[in-house]
Amino acid sequence: MKIKSIFDEKEVVFSLEVFPPRADVPIENIYQTLEELKDIDPDYISVTYGAGGGVHKNRTCELSSIIKEKYKVEALAHLTCINSDQRTLNKILARLKAKNIDNVLALRGDKPVDGDPLGDYNYAYQLVEHIKQQTNFGIAAACYPEGHLETESLDQDIEYLKQKVDYGVDYLISQMFFDNSLFYKFRDKVEEKGINVPIEAGIMPVINKKQVGRIIELSDAYFPDKFQKILDKYEDNPEALRDAGIAYAVEQIVDLISSEVDGIHLYTMNNPYVARRIKEAVGSLITHINGKKVG
Ligand SMILES: NC(=O)C1=CN([C@@H]2O[C@H](COP(=O)(O)OP(=O)(O)OC[C@H]3O[C@@H](n4cnc5c(N)ncnc54)[C@H](O)[C@@H]3O)[C@@H](O)[C@H]2O)C=CC1
Ligand SMILES: Nc1nc(=O)c2c([nH]1)NC[C@@H]1CN(c3ccc(C(=O)N[C@@H](CCC(=O)O)C(=O)O)cc3)CN21
C-alpha cells in the first residue's frame, strides 16, 4: 500500500522509525522490539539506511520486508544516493520491489564519514526523479524546519525543497526539532511557496546524554532553554532524564496534534518502552482527531 493513501484517509498519521541491527548480530535480535512496536499500532514503520553516514546499509531491505510480511505493518525503506552509483541503486530498488516494498524515503544522505561521495547523485531530487521515472514506488522525502545544515538560508532551502517535491514526492518527514514554533513558521513558508504535500513532524525523544552530541552533529537543532535545563538538571540520572525526555516529546506532540499537524514520525532509536509510553500519552488525542474526519 502506498503511504500516501494513509494521509488521504487520516487527519493525523502516526509512524515510527527504526534502524537495522548491526551486520554482525542476528537480524532476530530486533524481533522483540518490532513485536512491541507493532502493539503500539503505528500506521507504518520506516527503516533507516546508513543513518548518520554509517555503513550498515544492507539490512534495510530485509528489515522492511520483515516489518511488512511478519508484522503486517506498512513499511517505508530509506534509501540514500550520495554514496551509490546508479547501478547499485537500481539493484536495491529491484530488491525492494521483489520484497513487495511499496514506499521509499528518497534521501541524499549524510556525507560519508570515510571516503568521498561517488558523484553520480549529489542531491535527493535526482534520486526522486530517477525513482519516479523508473519505478512505481510511493516516494517520501526529508525536510528541514530550521534549514539543512549545509544551506546558506532557510528560503534557499525551501526553494530546493519545492524543486524536490515537484519531481514527484508524495509527502515529507521533518528533521527533528525541539521548538514547535520553528516548525509552524516553516510550515507557513512552505505553504506560501506552493508546496502542498503533507508534512509529518519528526520527533526525537531525547532520553540519554550520548544522543545529545549526535543530534547536534546531525541536525544542529535549536535547543530551547526549557529543554537545555532538563538536559543539565538530569544528565547524571538516566531514569529522570528518560522520564523528562518522554514528557518533553509528549508536550511537543500534544501541541502539534492540536495545531493540525499532518502526522507524527517518532524516531524510536529502537527503544519500544519509550515509544509505548509516548503513544499511551497521546493515543486518545490521535483517535479523537481521526474520529472527526467525515467520509
Ligand atoms: N540515513 C537516513 O536514514 C536519514 C538521513 N537523513 C539525512 O538528511 C540529509 C540530507 O538529505 P536530503 O534532505 O535528502 O538532501 P537534499 O538533497 O534534499 O538536500 C541536501 C542539501 O543540498 C541542498 N540542495 C538541494 N538541492 C539543491 C540544488 N539543486 N542545488 C544546490 N543545493 C541543493 C539543500 O539545501 C541541502 O543543504 C542528510 O544529512 C541525510 O542523511 C535524514 C533522515 C534519515
Ligand atoms: N543528518 C541526519 N542523518 C540521519 O541519518 C537522520 C537525521 N539527520 N535525522 C532524522 C533521523 C534521526 N536519525 C538518527 C539519529 C541519531 C542516531 C544516533 O544517535 N545513533 C547512535 C547509535 C545509536 C545506537 O546504536 O544505539 C550513534 O552513535 O551514531 C542515529 C540516527 C537518522 N536520521
Automatic annotation (TrEMBL):
Similarity annotation: Belongs to the methylenetetrahydrofolate reductase family.
InterPro entries: FAD-linked_oxidoreductase-like, Mehydrof_redctse-like, MTHF_reductase_bac
Enzyme Commission number, as recorded: 1.5.1.54
Transferase found in the keyword field: no
Species assigned in the record: Halanaerobium kushneri
Gene Ontology BP terms: methionine biosynthetic process; tetrahydrofolate interconversion
Any Pfam family hit: MTHFR
Pathway: Amino-acid biosynthesis; L-methionine biosynthesis via de novo pathway; One-carbon metabolism; tetrahydrofolate interconversion
EC class name: oxidoreductase
NCBIfam families reported in the protein's UniProt record: fadh2
PANTHER family recorded: METHYLENETETRAHYDROFOLATE REDUCTASE, METHYLENETETRAHYDROFOLATE REDUCTASE (NADPH)
GO cellular component, one term: cytosol
Keywords, alphabetical: Amino-acid biosynthesis, FAD, Flavoprotein, Methionine biosynthesis, NAD, Oxidoreductase
CDD domains: MTHFR (cd00537)
Cofactor(s) for this UniProt protein: FAD
Top-level lineage group: Bacteria
Lineage: Bacteria, Bacillati, Bacillota, Clostridia, Halanaerobiales
Catalysed reaction, written as an equation: (6S)-5-methyl-5,6,7,8-tetrahydrofolate + NAD(+) = (6R)-5,10-methylene-5,6,7,8-tetrahydrofolate + NADH + H(+)
MF terms (GO), sorted A to Z: FAD binding; methylenetetrahydrofolate reductase (NADH) activity
Name of the protein: Methylenetetrahydrofolate reductase
